[in-house]
TrEMBL record:
Gene3D superfamilies found in the cross-reference section: 1.10.287.130, P-loop containing nucleotide triphosphate hydrolases
UniProt keyword annotations, A-Z: Kinase, Transferase
Keyword Transmembrane assigned: no
Organism (species): Jejuia pallidilutea
Family: Belongs to the SIMIBI class G3E GTPase family. ArgK/MeaB subfamily.
Any single Gene Ontology cellular-component annotation: cytoplasm
Record-linked PANTHER family: METHYLMALONIC ACIDURIA TYPE A PROTEIN, MITOCHONDRIAL, METHYLMALONYL-COA MUTASE
Transmembrane segments: none
Entry keyword annotation includes Transferase: yes
Coiled coil ranges: none
Family annotation (Pfam families): MeaB
One of the record's GO molecular function terms: kinase activity
Name by which UniProt lists this protein: Putative periplasmic protein kinase ArgK and related GTPases of G3E family
Amino acid sequence: MVDFFLLLKLAGAGDELQGIKRGIIEMADAIAINKADGNTLEAAKLAKVEFNRALHLYPQKTSGWTPKVTLCSALKNEGIIEIWEMISEYIKLAKGTSYFDKRRHKQNTYWLHKTIENRLKSDFFNQPKVKVALQEQLKRIENNETTPFAAAEYILSLNKTL
């Protein structure tokens, strides 16, 4: 869960469009091609063109933002300010359309549920009776004396008696 997804790529690494297959480009709010300097500058420029073409294949983002591709060189400290300005522009747009607040609410809801889920799992599995029953049921499954589903039902039923 992030407010802005900046995908960093290396120029000339040979994997420019591999992200399409994995769906990572679709998730990106921007793509920064690093090491756009020296003998990799031309490869970086070519990668920028390829990524810009690829981004046009994806539907409009729900935020209303149009993803951008930029070049940078961390070594030469070039393009870094432009990246920060782009992120700031995105945040301004997202807050102006209430997308930012809606997404933040969705993130907070997710983390509330995840925190409760993790706590319940931890509390449940740390109970001495459950620890013993889990090991017993694993052995029973290994010996084909029960099914995973029956074992789970048995272990979960212990929660009612604890």
